[in-house]
Amino acid sequence: MTASNLDSIMTTNKCGEIFEALSLIMSIGESHPLEHGQHVALLTWRLLQELNIRENQLDLDPGYWWYGALLHDLGEIYLSDTLLFKSGYLTDKERKELEQHPIYGEKLINRIPQLKPVGKIVRWHHERWDGSGYPDKLKGEEIPLSVQVVGLADCLSALSAKRVHRPPLTHKEILAELKRMTDRKFNGVLVHQAASTIRKNRDWLDFIPDEYSKLSKKISSSIFTDNCSLPIFQEAEHGIKLLSKVIDTKHLYTKEHSKRVSKYSVLLAEALGLSGEEIKKCRVAGLLHDAGKVAVPSNILDKPGKLSAAEYKTIQGHPEMSYIILNTMSNYRDIALYSKHHHERYDGSGYPNGLRAERIPLISRIIGVVDAYDAMTSDRSYRSALTHEVAMKEIANNAGTQFDPEVAFCFCRMHEQFI
Asked: Which of 24, 105, 202, 353 sits CB 3.0–4.6 Å from 122 for a disulfide?
């Protein structure tokens, strides 16, 4: 695929939507503006058009440039909120920690077979033309062209956006910064082309959602096969697992939580006699039910003491945020709904909508039981893990109030499978 023949691409497959959701999760959890990853992808594509690069000069298919730009900061999920949102100068220790995020990102990207070519873009997007970048101190033409362009697009996006420590830069200030970066941070040829374009078109740096959406659909279809449009993952399974990994990594006490909820939800769904398709949905919903927790600050979710009313309200917002994130994937709208309602209570006193009894989707009721069990039997910031026996007793005691009694008692009868 080249930039010139992109319009001929079919737009039927959905696999790329998973990575769009992943980019959204990253933006919600970072100090960048919400569309940072999308903005960098769009600027990368615009730079590719402006540079008029011949096909034989490309080190990677342009579609991989797009996904490298979209997911370039994936490794930041391993960094603390304190570091990401710090407004002052970084200590040497903090800077060293920050400089690890491209390495973390490459390792995560390499979990997805379809996106392995993107790994080096993610790893090297902070390398600099004069060799002063990180993590591998590449210099000049050692830096692949795709990486050079994504790195410059990342810088332009950052300069044009509000950051923790400053307001957005004006066009004049951006052009002055580009001049200082020429042949230092970036290849002078790329910088001169970008600067020339910005002078001619003051809107060139703007993020335009419709333009982005059209490009995203077309590029997705060029990278992923038609099998990605099957109802429940198939080739998209790697992406779903990565989403789950990122969700659980964000907070100290949620490691492997989603994986366990998924596993136990499948066992419970089988015991309840659900269909094969419903069991698959339980698996995916279990993996992704807590997607919205990336919007909850670590100092709240990992707080060792009692939450204030405002902090508890913040946590209660995570199911609706899960719905917003997952609803961006057209094949996962039902998963979004199950995730939204997994904190509803059978007696109607839950959240976010106060649904009761059978008005709560069955898969949400299943996840609600399993999620509560795993939370009780795992260490939390405010208490040590409860024993299996105590947790099972709590499930039974709350059948008919917090939990669907049929689902709860079925879960309790299966107790030996969860030890």
From this structure: 105
The CA distances from residue 290 to 140, 169, 255, 321, 384, in Å, are 43, 36, 12, 9, 21
User: How buried is residue 17: exposed, middle or buried, by Cβ count under 10 Å (0-12/13-18/19+)?
Assistant: buried
pLDDT reading at 246 higher than 90: no
CA distance 236 to 393: 38
Please name every residue paired with 163 in a beta bridge, in sequence order, or none if there are none. Answer: 166
The angle, 0 to 180 degrees and rounded to 10, between the axes of the packed helices 15-28 and 209-223 is 130
- By three-state DSSP, how is residue 186 classified? strand
Q: DSSP letter for 91, please.
A: P
The answer to whether the CB of 82 falls within 8 A of the CB of 60 is: no
User: Which ranges of 272-404 does DSSP label H, i.e. alpha helix?
Assistant: 276-288, 298-301, 309-316, 318-326, 333-340, 362-376, 388-397
- Cα–Cα distance measured from residue 121 to residue 143, given in angstroms and rounded to the nearest whole number: 10
**pLDDT, tens digit, 9 for 90 and up, residues 183-216:** 999 999 999 999 999 999 989 999 999 999 888 8
HSE-CB for 47 with a 13 A CA cutoff? 31
CA distance 3 to 304: 52
Distance CA 170, CA 331 (A): 41
pTM value surpassing 0.90: no
Phi-psi region of 140 (alpha: psi -120 to 50; beta: other; left: phi over 0): left
- Give dist(CA 83, CA 80) in Å, integer: 5
Band of the pLDDT at 164, cuts 50, 70, 90? Answer: confident
pLDDT in tens, 294-351: 888 878 888 888 889 999 999 999 999 999 989 888 888 999 999 999 999 999 999 9
Tokens 């949400």 -> residue:
364
Q: What is the CA radius of gyration of the chain?
A: 23
The SS3 of residue 182 is strand
